[in-house]
Amino acid sequence: MEWHPIKTAPSDGRLALVYRPLALKSGDQPVAVKRLIGGKNHCWDSTVPPGQKPCNPTDGACHVTHWMPIPEPPTATAVMRASQ
Fold this sequence. Notes:
The chain starts with a strand and ends with a helix. It has one helix spanning about 75-84, and strands at about 5, 15-20, 30-35, 65-70. A four-stranded antiparallel β-sheet has the order 1-4-2-3, with no helix packed on it. The chain is elongated. By secondary structure, it is mainly beta.
């Protein structure tokens, strides 16, 4: 899997991994699981880069730059092998 630009993200409400490089300014982690909603909600001023407009394409992470689908969980066989 690889990261995709946020402008290519669907806005159908699916969960995805998102990357937000400025997250530490607001006390959040840079990588998070969020719902992709395509909104334009406002963000905290401290997380808005100079010259940029505040936007929120997810259910709560401002200035996301990249996204990727959540990978499938391990199969039962892989889990059993790892526990041996």
